[in-house]
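User: Quick one: structure for sequence A, then sequence B.

Assistant: Sequence A:
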Amino acid sequence: MIDFEDLADLASERLGGAVLAANDEFFAPKEGLLKPGPAEWRQDEYTERGKWMDGWETRRHSRDHDWALIRLGVPGIVRGVVVDTSFFRGNYPEHCSIEAANVPGTPSLEQLETASWEEILPKSALEGDSRNRFPVYSEQRITHLRLHIYPDGGVARLRVHGEVVPAWTRFARGGGEVDLAALENGGWAMACSNMFYGDRQNLILPGRSLFMGDGWETRRRRGPGYDWSIIRLAAAGAIHRVELDTDYFKGNAPDRCTLEVANLPGATVRQLTAADAPWKPLLPETRLHPHTRYRFEDEVLPAGEATHARINIFPDGGVARLRLFGTLAESAR
C-alpha cells in the first residue's frame, strides 16, 4: 500500500495551484493555505487586525461556516488530504468538509459556483495544532476544490495528494516531444535509496531549483554501493534527450551518474529493484560537476520504449532536476 502523502500535492503552488476566493480572510489571507513548507510561529508579531498567523484565518461567529475555493495546480484523482492546523490552538475549526469539481479551461467564479460539485470528504472533526490526515475514496478527475470549515477559525496548510491526470490528448495530437518524467505530466518518483536531505519528487518538479534543499539529496555514503531513484514515466515512450542539473550542489554533487530505462507497465518497486530487473542503459557513466546544467542528446543510447527510468549517482550527493524528453509510444497515444 502507498501512503497517500508519497503522492504529488496536486494543489501545490509550485505546480500552479491557487486559492481563487474565500468568503472571509479577516485575520490571515487565504493564500497562506497553499504556501510551500510548514507553517511558522512568530511569538510577538501582531497586525492591526490581531495576532499574525501563518495560514488562512476567518473572523468569529459571523456565519454558519466559512469556505475557500482552490484551483489545483494539475488535475488529478485525490487519494488523501492533510488539513494542517499547526499553531491554531484556540482558534481552529471544529470540523471541515471538501467538495470537488472537474471544470476544464479557465472558468470564472460564476461558472464554478454553478458547476457540479461532489463531496469527497464528508464533515469531519479536526484537532488543533495537528496534521489532520484524511484518506479520500473517489475516482473522479478533479480540477477545483472547495474547503469548508465549521463554524470558523484558522487552517495553516492544505495538502491535496493524488495521482496527476493531465489532458494527454494535447500531446497525442501533436506527436511531438514531451518530458516523460515531469510531475506535472504525470511522472512520479516511486522510490529511492535515500533522501535524507531532499525529497525525490523534487527531481521532477517544474522550473529550475531555487536553492540546495529544492533538489534530491542523499546522506554521505560510508561504504560500498551507490544511490538511485526510480521514476515511473507519465506514459510509455522513447527517450531521446536528457537534461540534468546539479544547481546549488557545489560541494555535494555526485561524482558520476548513469541512466537506465525499463519497459514494465504496472511494475512494483520490488519488481524494479530485483536483481534480474530488465534495465537497459540510456546514458553511460558520465562525470558530473557541481552547480552545472547538462543537456545530453548525442550521448543518449537507443533503448526503445520505456515505462520507467532510473538515475544512479556515484557514490552519493544531490541532483536538482532531471528531464527526460521523448515521444509517446503508439499505445499511449
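Sequence B:
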Amino acid sequence: MGLEWEQLVIDAADPVALGSWWREALGWVVVNDSAEEYEIRPEPDRLPGLLFGTAPEGKTVKNRLHLDFRPDDRDAEVERLLALGARHTDIGQRRDEPWVVLADPEGNEFCVLGERPGG
C-alpha cells in the first residue's frame, strides 16, 4: 500500500477569490473552479495541488501549518507578492531571520525563504 500526496486543503471565506489569488501568485492552473471547491495545481496532471473550500468561521489564530517558498530572489518575490495583495505579518519571528513572513488576502501565513544555506 502506498500514499500519494494529492492536495492541501485551505479553508476560505471565498474559495474562488482566495484560490484565484494563489493561482496568480504561483502561476498554477485551475483544475476545478466550482464555488465550493476551487483547486489549482502546478500543471493539470501534476500533484500536489491546493484545494480551497468554504469555511463558515473566520481565521482567528496563527496557522498550525503553513507553506514555505524558496524563490531565486527573495526580495523581488516579496515585492511581487505584496503588489498582488499579500501583506507582512508578525508571528513572533526575529527581525534577523533569512525569511519573510507574509499573509494571503484571508490572513493565511506563508514564508518566502532566503538563499539556501551553502548556496
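The mean pLDDT is 92. Residues 96 and 114 are 11 Å apart (CA to CA).

User: Thanks, that's what I needed.
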